[in-house]
Amino acid sequence: MISDHKLLEHDVRKIVRLLAEVSIHVNDQSLAKSTLMKGLCRLIDADSWAWGLAKDVSPGEPSVHLSLIHGGFTEVTSAMFTRAYQHPDMTDVHTPLVAEMKRRNCHITRLRQQIDPDGRAFTNGAGPYWEKADIRGVILSMYPTPGGFISIMGIYRRFSASLFNERENLIAHVALGGFPWLHANNWSASCKAITGLCTRKRMITDFLIKGYKRKDIAKHLGISPHTTNDYVKSVFEHFQVHSQAELIGKFHGGGRL
């Protein structure tokens, strides 16, 4: 049990209607995921969301993860969100949650105040980026997949909004666990390749697959265009592609890595 809170009948009806909407897109996983997350945001009054994949690492090891699809962000808040969750200081924040998921070996969903009761994510090195991303309320959901990978979903609220509560967390947990086939997909191949990249190159990859131009990547990371081009070239070589479009196709078009 993730909470003693009980769902009301109208909550259940709304979840059922949402799951029915998602089931229509059984042949398009990206569309099914975005439909689910957008609908969930409507149900619990969230502002933005992200869905990605993480490598199951041992306690103390650096996090290895990538946000593959997202919604509700502006160009700037999306860039700051990427910098926030890719920040090395977030490893210590996420480690207890990953350890709990491994111990229970099941899908878990937690509020920000449960994951990080002391608010370390907002006072450590990642804090300024979370603020610039305009994120305060957080629900984080992790679903173990075959091969030692984790399907990871985040739902967010702006700084001006209240934190999520236990009822909203339970709604998210039920909705996000409704489709096991959305978690057991070919993203594990993508993540295997990601594990061979340093944090900065993973961040560059994240920006590229979200469609950012090189000049914008340089601006948001505070590095020179020349340095950005060197990183992009290295990322292309790592994934054996020749263009940004080809890289995006690897992750969103079912390409093999």
UniProtKB/TrEMBL annotation:
Protein name: HTH luxR-type domain-containing protein
Pfam families per record: GerE
UniProt cross-references to InterPro entries, sorted A to Z: Sig_transdc_resp-reg_C-effctor, Tscrpt_reg_LuxR_C, WH-like_DNA-bd_sf
Domain of life, per lineage: Bacteria
GO annotation terms (biological process): regulation of DNA-templated transcription
Gene Ontology molecular-function annotations: DNA binding
Organism: Luteolibacter pohnpeiensis
Residues annotated as domain HTH luxR-type: 194-251
